[in-house]
Amino acid sequence: MIGYKHILLGLTAIVLITGCGEDDDDDILGTHNQGRDCQACHSNFTIGGTVFTKIDAVNSDATSAAPNHTLKLALEAGTEITLIKGYGSGNAYTTTNTSTVGAFTAQVLDANNNVVNSSNTLSHDGDMLRCNTCHTQNGLNSAPGRITNFRL
Ligand code: HEC
Ligand code: HEC
Question: Measured in angstroms, how far is the CA atom of residue 41 from the centroid of ligand 1?
Fold first, then answer.
């Protein structure tokens, strides 16, 4: 028999699971560490980044993230890697094997999968997969700032 105490325990568990962040981050929309280095927390992700509507958005600013956008790597070899959308507006990641990724052109896809922004042709390479480590608020290592959903 499922008693009152069991129901109470169950409810407590649900509150603990969903209540651990103040953010509404259980979707491809909402706030979830936008602009931060995904792989710093997700060691199972091989690529991760955020698309913003503003070149100088601050970390976790979901209102400056580009909802339903994602990132694509157009590889020198002719194949492509398209990232999975989510947790949080503008965020994207994959766990796919990247051991053979060499030079690539980084592209931004809008909600209709149109390319709306791009890096220079084949300017990125296989050790540049933690996108937000260079695409910071003001840009590091010559990056212009955030990855944006428009051409600069
Ligand atoms: C400061 C640590 C931290 C950073 C940075 C971070 N996350 Fe998370 N992420 C978490 C935690 C903790 C959870 C699980 C709890 C939750 O649901 O919020 C999570 C859950 C997720 C999930 C649900 C599936 C899973 O693997 O757990 C996805 C997808 C995700 N994050 C994507 C991202 C992306 C994309 C980025 C980079 C833009 C990112 N996260 C940055 C801490 C982080
Ligand atoms: C080591 C630093 C570095 C990393 C990591 C990096 N980039 Fe870049 N990115 C740059 C630089 C420098 C430029 C400007 C020159 C160019 O276009 O290649 C740039 C430009 C871009 C642009 C065009 C300008 C803009 O900001 O929108 C896009 C889009 C882009 N990168 C996407 C990505 C994606 C996606 C990733 C992760 C897969 C990534 N970058 C990882 C350095 C980096």
Answer: 7
